[in-house]
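Just curious. Invent one:
>
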Amino acid sequence: MSIKSLRILGVTVFLGSALAYPFDKIDIESSLLTNPSDVAGKHFDYVIAGGGLTGLTAAARLSEVPEISVLVIESGFFESNRGPIIEDLNAYGQIFDTTAEWAYATVPQAVNNVSQIVRSGHGLGGSTLINGGSWTRPHKVQLDSWETVFGNKGWNWDNLTHYMSMAELSRPPNQKEIDAGHYFNASCHGTNGTVHVGPRDTGKPYSPIMKALMDTVSQLGVPIQHDLNCGDPHGVSMFPNDVNTDQIRSDAAREWLLPNYKRPNLKVLVGQRVGKVLLDNTETTPIAMGVQFGTNRAVNFEVYAKQEVLIA
């Protein structure tokens, strides 16, 4: 009997193929499923709700085993081929208020009774489509607390940074970038992973303001961190970005889906929203057996998981 369960995923770091793929030369959209009937009523080993960073990373890793079938259900669509509005990190914000993001509105805030917008990516790649592309890691104390405070044995800085480095394909700064204030500690970065990481090039000469700011705050007692990815991000530094050598955004669809979308055991359904996890309540502990999905509340389909349902 297969063990079936429900997992909620929020952070994933895995190893993958270290290649950059140009969307303009590959027709990925024709391989995506849009008809819910193509998967309705079927069984997959893993059903992943959400095709953002976590969902696509997990799908890429799980589907490395040909015998394991994986289905990803994403409410958005393929957005990474929009061109510079997404590809260019210097165009940050131009993609806001399009179909590529949710633009959640908060309740009116107590300070001024004005509703604020919370940005969140909508589409294959999730928020990696719209964010600023900063590449940073948590404080060592934070990761160690997962073990010391919450009792998760082995979940600590020393163990987890190994996997973070496995996900990374870093590019050290050149001399021009070093002169501008970029620091790089090779021991804190990976060189054989999937996600391209390196200094961002704005296409213009680096402003002397950043270096001057670092020198100024240093005189006030704020430490200059030579690399924010080494476990102590307290201080000031220039951080690397998720960009490849051509200065194109390393979003999750580009890095995790594009190299793997032709795998016969990996299916990606777009334009459908998961609305409910189907539970088998016959046991003492409910077991996730699948999900219900559709384009709206009136149209509901079901698909089933032989192993696990992953909420990503």
